[in-house]
Specification:
The chain is mainly alpha-helical. The protein has one domain (6-148): Orthogonal Bundle (Arc Repressor Mutant, subunit A), CATH 1.10.10. Helices cover 58% and strands 5% of the residues.
Length: 154
């Protein structure tokens, strides 16, 4: 089963935008994400509808953040994407009258619900500002390692 990486991709785009002075075009964002500008425009239109980004038309136009990074959580972006499925596994439903299947599914439903609630709570605890701070800390470490010759990619 293919993983849904939209949340990760949108967060990636938003952090690129935060690092860019002024509006940034769908084409530039698409190159950064190795995708088609149409995909970026579709995603951004949904985020614009939620008030997270804005667009400017014409020469020098493009997309920009519409609110402070500290005010946007990963949960906010997840919700703006339409709450895609969090888990790739699910219940077997081939024999709904089977008591064994019912018992298994009841146990799994509880586990799935608990896991989703925990994940959603965690997404609500992390802001885009926290992601940006982590990026900047990693960038500083990489720069420091490059200056001292200590860094290496694994």
């Amino acid at each position: 089963m293919k993983r849904d990486s939209r949340l990760s991709g949108v967060l990636h785009v938003l952090l690129h935008m935060a690092e860019h002075e002024g509006p940034i075009t769908s084409e530039v964002l698409a190159r950064a994400m190795q995708t088609n500008p149409v995909v970026i425009r579709r995603i951004m239109a949904g985020l614009r509808g939620q008030g997270y980004v804005r667009s400017e038309k014409g020469h020098g136009g493009g997309w920009s953040l519409a609110c402070d990074l500290g005010a946007i959580t990963l949960r906010d972006i997840y919700d703006a994407l339409g709450c895609p499925s969090l888990l790739a596994i699910g219940n077997r439903t081939e024999a709904p009258g089977c008591l064994v299947e019912q018992a298994v599914n009841a146990a799994l439903d509880t586990a799935f619900h608990d896991a989703e609630a925990l994940l959603l709570a965690r997404l609500g605890d992390v802001t885009l500002a926290a992601l940006s701070a982590d990026f900047h800390a990693r960038l500083e470490r990489r720069s420091k390692d490059a200056r001292t010759g200590e860094g290496h990619d694994s």
